[in-house]
Amino acid sequence: MKRAHLARDILEVIALALILFLATRLAIQNYHVENVSMQPTLVDGENVIVNKLAYLFHPPERGDVIVFHWPLDTRQDFIKRIIGIPGDVIRTDSTHVWVNGVLLNEPYVKAPYNAIANIWRLGKDQYFVMGDNRPDSDDSRNWGVVPRNYIVGKAIAVYWPINRWQVINTYPAVFAHIPDANPQTTSK
């Protein structure tokens, strides 16, 4: 009798552990930073926690650092900061970025740099992303927008190496004064 009870207890513990493991894998994942495009916020070799359920009840926001499938090869995942959301107009010159006519004061940028001046108008479900290390970032300035369904989740914290542990700052004050996008643009 005790042996059957012990076997059932072991099976229950294994089943519970499996359920917890699967639930955790559905909700979060880790991402290994493999380049310098997000310096100084994230450096090569760090591991971050990605909340895959972050956008279940609200859309991605400007300033969020996201992991997404690269539009040119969806087998690769990138990590960048959202600068523009659906309906926004992004404009750059050699060192500045404007969103809907508002010049961004970006304290997270390592070195301001844009190879060319350009203007992008974002359609429905389109996000404009840039790395914080602008001179060394392959981002929306080069290959275009990120579709909403390519976003894996929001990077929320660095967990490794342990001496670099930090919650990832989204700098809400940088984007607080940007007017809402033109509603006609978002309904495309």
TrEMBL record:
What are the Peptidase S26 domain coordinates in residue numbering?
Answer: 12-160
Major localization class: membrane
- Superkingdom, according to UniProt? Bacteria
Q: What is its EC number?
A: 3.4.21.89
Q: Which GO terms describe its molecular function?
A: serine-type endopeptidase activity; signal peptidase activity
**What SUPFAM superfamilies is this protein classified in?**
LexA/Signal peptidase (SSF51306)
* The protein's name in its UniProt record: Signal peptidase I
Which Gene Ontology cellular component terms are annotated? plasma membrane
Q: What class of enzyme is it?
A: hydrolase
Catalytic reaction(s) noted: Cleavage of hydrophobic, N-terminal signal or leader sequences from secreted and periplasmic proteins
NCBIfam families, per database record: sigpep_I_bact
Q: Cite the active-site annotation.
A: 37, 80
Which Pfam families does the record associate with it?
Peptidase_S26
Matches recorded under InterPro entries:
LexA/Signal_pep-like_sf, Pept_S26A_signal_pept_1, Pept_S26A_signal_pept_1_CS, Peptidase_S26
Q: How does it sit in the membrane?
A: Single-pass type II membrane protein
Listed A to Z, the keywords are: Hydrolase, Protease
Family as reported in the entry's similarity comment: Belongs to the peptidase S26 family.
Q: Does the keyword Membrane apply?
A: no
- Which GO terms are recorded in the biological process aspect for this UniProt protein? signal peptide processing
**Which locations, inside or outside the cell, does it occupy?**
Cell membrane; Membrane
